[in-house]
Write a structure and sequence with these properties.
Blueprint (H helix, E strand, L loop, with lengths): L1 H10 L1 H7 L6 H19 L9 E3 L7 H16 L15 H16 L5 H20 L33 E3 L14 E4 L8 E2 L26 E2 L7 H6 L2 H10 L3 H9 L5 H9 L1 H4 L11 H17 L2 H4 L21 E2 L9 E2 L13 E3 L1
Parallel strand pairs: 1-8
Antiparallel strand pairs: 2-3, 4-5, 6-7
Helix pairs in contact: 1-2, 2-8, 3-12, 4-6, 6-12
Pfam family, one: Tyrosinase
InterPro entries: Di-copper_centre_dom_sf, Tyrosinase/Hemocyanin, Tyrosinase_Cu-bd
Protein name: Di-copper centre-containing
Length: 368
Amino acid sequence: MLSIYKGFCLLTSVLCLFTGEASADALGDLQTKGRTAINTQLAKSTTCTAAKLQVRKEWGNVSVADRKAYIKAVLCLMSAPSKLPAGKFPGAQNRYDDFVVTHMQQTLQIHGTGSFFSWHRYYTWAYEQALRNECGYNGTQPYWDFGKWTDPEKSPIFDGTDTSMSGNGKKVSHKATSVGPAQNGGGCVETGPFANMTVRLGPVSPMADPAPPKNPRSDGYGINTRCLRRDIGPYLVSKGSTTAMMVNLITSKTTIGPFQDTMQGGNPGVHTSAHFTIGSDPGGDFYTSPNDPAFWLLHGQIDRLWTIWQSQDLPNRMQVIAGGTSMMGGGAAQKLTDNIDISNVASKVYQIKDLVSITDGPFCYVYE
């Protein structure tokens, strides 16, 4: 009977939203459904083959050994020297910081725009490649399935063990933000592999209480030494990124414009609710949010959601685009021939049209 209900939920996701009973694996069911289309696209690829194909997994499904290998590689990037021009970005003290600077530089052109998905796909892939090519990592970029863990603090991602992405911040007295209430932390992260991590860049547009100290430079690139803070709790997951909500987003939005706008906007929307589930500083600053190492698992899931949405009608959902080129509105309409340039961290410049398939262009991976 349960399997019949799961199938019914996939066909009538709105009902599942009202009942709150979407199968925990309903998103995985959509992923499985779309895999045939991705395999068909793979067979046409001139750059990716089945033999080369890499598999990205949810953190909870990654082995303990592979989690430790991933964490080791992230810590390696944090200890490797920056490759940015000396003195131009004083707060960029290591290779990991180079990725943060890249996001800061382009924030207003990559959020609320037509390049949101493709830019972050390439950016997350470039990070994965840096872990592999610069720090000896042999695995892939894991993702965080938001709806799988109704209480994020109890998930293997944020439980504070040595195989997690570290735990919540220390519980301190603090106030709500405009996105949601004060949650269960607010202070410095003191458990797990990234305990006592040093943050230097930003803030630029902080949404955290207590407010982080101001950067000595107005652009946020100065040295501003402080701890990694988090304010994790279940509230925003329940309001914006449950499994039922993500399934409904994929099944109810049949064109790219409404899909990406609802993903990024909404009330609070999948993307926003996930970021502010981490929250605080730097996670609550949309310029510097990659300075929290959990960012990459979050955007692995955002890319996965786009991939699943595409795969439901892949031939008609790859070479499509909507939106403008500025988060603030105005400017030109985004085009598939627009360039994605993240040359601080990846030397090749691609057009958006080259970044819409996970089995073409520079990419050769799938989600499982």
